[in-house]
Amino acid sequence: MKFLKFYADWCGPCKVLETNLRRAGIENYEAINVDENEELVTQYNIRNIPVFIAESEGGTELGRFVGVKSPDGIKKWIDELNE
Length: 83
Hints:
This protein is α+β, with helices and mostly antiparallel strands. It has a single domain (2-70), classed as Glutaredoxin (3-Layer(aba) Sandwich). It is built from three helices and four strands, in the order E-H-E-H-E-E-H. It has a four-stranded mixed beta sheet with strand order 2-1-3-4, with no helix packed on it.
């Protein structure tokens, strides 16, 4: 499973999500700045930020959440995807 995080430098909740991802032990993800990657924003249908997406290694989207989750909430979300 691989992860994508859509964010912007000016986005306060994006900074909180980054901290919570680190606290949850999730440090291996692709960070995509929405201000610099319009093509990916369109491809992934990003309407709000932050957005955190889980994909299979083949690129199939397994799940996403919008906004901020607590470190425990992030771990639970990933555990549910692995079931």
